[in-house]
Amino acid sequence: MPVIRERGPQALAVLHEKDTQQPLRSHSSFIICSVHSLTRMKKLVLDVDTGVDDAQAIMIALTAPKVEILGITCCHGNTPLDNVLKNTLRVLKVCNRLDIPVYKGFSKPLLASKQHASDYHGKDGLGEVPDPDAPGVELLQKEMAAQAMIKIAKANPGEVILVATGPLTNLAVAVQLDPSLPKKLKSLYIMGGNTESRGNTTMCGEFNFVADPEAAYIVLDRYTCPTYIAAWEFSCRSSLPWSFCDEWLSLKTEKAAFIRKISNLSMNKARSADYQKEIIAGKGFNPCDVFALAAAVDDGFITESEKVAVTVELDGKHTRGMMVLDYMEHLKKDHKAVIMKTVDLEKLKKMLFKAVK
Amino acid sequence: MPVIRERGPQALAVLHEKDTQQPLRSHSSFIICSVHSLTRMKKLVLDVDTGVDDAQAIMIALTAPKVEILGITCCHGNTPLDNVLKNTLRVLKVCNRLDIPVYKGFSKPLLASKQHASDYHGKDGLGEVPDPDAPGVELLQKEMAAQAMIKIAKANPGEVILVATGPLTNLAVAVQLDPSLPKKLKSLYIMGGNTESRGNTTMCGEFNFVADPEAAYIVLDRYTCPTYIAAWEFSCRSSLPWSFCDEWLSLKTEKAAFIRKISNLSMNKARSADYQKEIIAGKGFNPCDVFALAAAVDDGFITESEKVAVTVELDGKHTRGMMVLDYMEHLKKDHKAVIMKTVDLEKLKKMLFKAVK
Amino acid sequence: MPVIRERGPQALAVLHEKDTQQPLRSHSSFIICSVHSLTRMKKLVLDVDTGVDDAQAIMIALTAPKVEILGITCCHGNTPLDNVLKNTLRVLKVCNRLDIPVYKGFSKPLLASKQHASDYHGKDGLGEVPDPDAPGVELLQKEMAAQAMIKIAKANPGEVILVATGPLTNLAVAVQLDPSLPKKLKSLYIMGGNTESRGNTTMCGEFNFVADPEAAYIVLDRYTCPTYIAAWEFSCRSSLPWSFCDEWLSLKTEKAAFIRKISNLSMNKARSADYQKEIIAGKGFNPCDVFALAAAVDDGFITESEKVAVTVELDGKHTRGMMVLDYMEHLKKDHKAVIMKTVDLEKLKKMLFKAVK
Amino acid sequence: MPVIRERGPQALAVLHEKDTQQPLRSHSSFIICSVHSLTRMKKLVLDVDTGVDDAQAIMIALTAPKVEILGITCCHGNTPLDNVLKNTLRVLKVCNRLDIPVYKGFSKPLLASKQHASDYHGKDGLGEVPDPDAPGVELLQKEMAAQAMIKIAKANPGEVILVATGPLTNLAVAVQLDPSLPKKLKSLYIMGGNTESRGNTTMCGEFNFVADPEAAYIVLDRYTCPTYIAAWEFSCRSSLPWSFCDEWLSLKTEKAAFIRKISNLSMNKARSADYQKEIIAGKGFNPCDVFALAAAVDDGFITESEKVAVTVELDGKHTRGMMVLDYMEHLKKDHKAVIMKTVDLEKLKKMLFKAVK
What we know:
Four copies of one chain form a homotetramer.
Chain A: H1 8-15, H2 35-38, E1 42-48, H3 52-63, E2 67-74, H4 81-94, E3 102-103, H5 118-121, H6 145-155, E4 160-164, H7 169-177, H8 181-184, E5 185-191, H9 207-210, H10 213-222, E6 227-230, H11 232-237, H12 242-249, H13 254-271, H14 273-278, H15 289-297, E7 302-308, E8 310-312, E9 323-325, E10 337-343, H16 345-356
Parallel strand pairs in A: 1-2, 1-4, 2-3, 4-5, 5-6, 6-10
Antiparallel strand pairs in A: 7-10, 8-9
Helix pairs in contact in A: 3-15, 3-16, 6-7, 7-10
Family (chains A, B, C, D): Belongs to the IUNH family.
Pfam families (chains A, B, C, D): IU_nuc_hydro (PF01156)
InterPro entries (chains A, B, C, D): Inosine/uridine_hydrolase_dom, IUN_hydrolase, Ribo_hydro-like
């Protein structure tokens, strides 16, 4: 844990970070408080459909400075829910952090047919390299994901940063159960949607949104907290070179070995000519979910963005599940999302390295 | 509570009623058991958007023989949720049954825009005749409607008859929270949908379904328990003569006075030429929600029905929210709903009279 | 052929009165004319997708009193256009009326995918009983169907009764080419659409409308002439008993033999349990297209009808192509179609007998 | 008019090669021909909805080397059809080319509601600077646009380059009337559609496609000739600097004065902050329709493009009329359109200057 560098004026600089909504109230007890209370810890709840890139995202979160993970909620998505639960526990075990509470979420979208991305992430969602000693689901919390989100947000008003890297079913039901949830959140980071009608699942639709279009619609409609979106096209344009990837995964650590193992299948897939065709601008390694997480843990990660009202097309033969950007302001929506345009890729590389050290 | 008349062979006749799924296991303790265990009590949960016809339905349920109301869950619909809560409590107060637990449900559809039927039911949803001594919302249960449904069904496996007379939002979220809920229910009775594309809200859509089409879709898709539907066209064809209505409401009881008072506005509306135009076959008093309730409390009420798979059109410029009957079996759905065709109107009249005595 | 009817402007003045529903029976100044020439000749253009029921309709038209067929335009539908052309010529040959001009229309719907009803009408659309001596397509007119409709209507302003018994592609393009066409027609009779969401092709859609929903939409939108619709549900309810059918087809005439031969396959199909299931009310022989034609040639055929604005649902997963009736007057359409409710079935039987004599 | 080019089968073989992108410059056996007749003349048919940018496009076509305009067909669009007809004639008059045949096309989309872009192009579609001496509509051809297209293509098989700069209604009906039309064309250039869901009329839809989505769908589906598309986003990215515009319009010629006059209103609009917001990449003068025309008259104009199958979304609350690019090859379409990516802007400037000299 960082001890010194947050002290003094630098620390204050950190405290006055962009998204701070509540100014620091009391300074008097400054000297005696622990480092933990000195600089504001980011309190994260991760909503995942673990998957290879979710695994990478979780590992970055676990190694990011001044970040506390209050819980991980699981959702159907890249792989069926049961796999997501197991995969999430496996990642935490490798990182020796099984103390983090993991919650079971929904196994089905609100009404769309279920679909998974098994061809990419493998049948088990984690590269088809089973762990005979994987932790058992008895480690899961009894409480359900949506209710846990509500409870955690209530217990940490204005502090919780929700990072959603799967279909948005859990978030959609949570806001239905507690319409005041968004107001209690600090912010929401989403990996999903598309900005230029370039789909990766349907012709115009990105996987997470297409996997539950109604949930995506509800979330973009009702989560009026500050919302940051890492869309598919952005992630394609922000790909890392394969050479970086080779270097990264050649680290001689247990964590690197784990990532290497689970990533093998999907990286081969991703490097294939067929898949690269789908990548719009720039070829390379697209860590996808990681972008949302990186933005959530480092306020300086996003270097360029735009604010625009967004929604999701629910009809449409080819466009169902497509995110729609309202540049023309036809929707008359007050709430605008922050659409990520460019990010600091050097920071990303450092995070990825730190994650496996 | 009924004491004697259910004893003897008649009682057995009752026990062998049509829908009994579990045969009576032990007869040895017959003599000593309480009346309650002697004949099967129907255990109802009512999901309402109280409204005038919901009020009538509740009052029938309260006076039906061998019927126990385990709870009333409230949903947005005829009037905003806050009114629904107040109206439900007002009805229970008039009937001196404030002991029945009332639960707060959702104030919004899953994603459709909210809409209410204020022009018909009045701004307060109950004929605009405020009660200064109406019971306060402090009487509401702390638990939310969807969770309460799940808990009650779990506590009474195979016994709960769910009667839904409003938009189906509560039921949709409940089955998302607990996919096994339908299996735990005895049956589901719905007032809603249409069978012949004759709408009462949009050109082809009935109010309860149009008010939350996604919820209706989810319920018809996932509630695989025996499901009975009183659709709009059926209710129109089963109208009662206004003369009956006059007689009914002229009873000199407190309850009749209450119904008379709250029904005045909507009955004038219903008797107007403009409204009668919308009624398809047969003019008269259409008690709507009451049909679903009457079928739930009396297994002999439905005299003709058909079983067919059903779903809800979610797209469609004119047909969004329309119930679709799959006579051609294109959907390949195993689960068929029972569509009510004709009912015993004499029984209905008796129930209505009994309700206000 | 009528000779007298062109006599004198006075006669024309009477005969040309718009929308005359009761034919002029007797007129003192017309003592010298034959009854046939006395009353106004009905001038028909038939737009067909010959099929078995189109064949029957054409044969009724050819034998109806005071009816002149100005042309037959052919459209894709029951069977591919080439078959429709051949089948139409075959019917005219059997009736010895190859003098009637036959026009080639569109082989494809405006934008829907092509579909045919081969399983019902047979691969050739006419019961799979080929005629080695069938007339050749060299007998077809050079002019295309849509343009021919426009020309004929222009040459006979206010007199042409258009009877459409197939998909409405020809009519849709014709009104695009000449928006004034509907004003020049006397009336339009359509077999197609549905009134109670009971489909015969999709769950909610009737074949002719589903085969080209955009064309149906355009026709119901732009043909503001008096429009009579024989919808699918009506035709089902107006079925004739199979016993009548047996008697009808046992007539010892060449024409009856022809009908018997071409109807064999579809009648066996129609009599099957599977097909009868789809028939809503009343089982039996449903001559479908014949209803529209019968209404066109005999103003007394329709015994009950209702006027209502109609349109076609173009979106909709299950309802695309479904006719929508605007009882609630949401569309604010001035033009109402006449929806056929009941017809004089005794008249129908007589027409069918006369057609094969 | 070219005389020699039909000489000898060899010459024809060379001249008729499909998709020749570099015009034949010199040929030894052609010493006696004039340069004009030496190289292949491009035979254009323009389908316009004259508007300001259509006017500019026509003027470029009239001054482009080796280009013959066989006809101009008019369509509803920027302004009602009657204005389009008048505006087209006005442009030809200014250029002293009233000899070019102008055809009246459709005044309405196939089934969408009519809409015009009056706020941009002015009420008369041409900047609201009426010409008291405008040529009369008696100069129009008697034949309709769709039929004229068919006739011209038939008379010039494999030679006609169709340039469509308005809604595609005329083209859609033409291919319905003659499905073989596309095979007879040399190529088709379209201004319309969008590639990145960035609309200019609806949130995701470009004006020409949204003005008749069904027509756009039909054209992209059935015109299997080489098809080049200048989409909205491309045109935005290819804007010219306002400084160029000022220089261009300051030329002291009658034609420049005409363009200046008719462009005044729309350029002020375009230069406004409000409008520039909609322009995606690069601010400036977007001559829109001109891009399609420039590509048609100069094979070297397009410097970068991509081939991809395309279609049009017809459903969709926000996406109706949006062009969909099938990078994932889900449509299994053989025919790919050429989507313009970058063009030679210096060439464009020269064309614009030449057009007004």
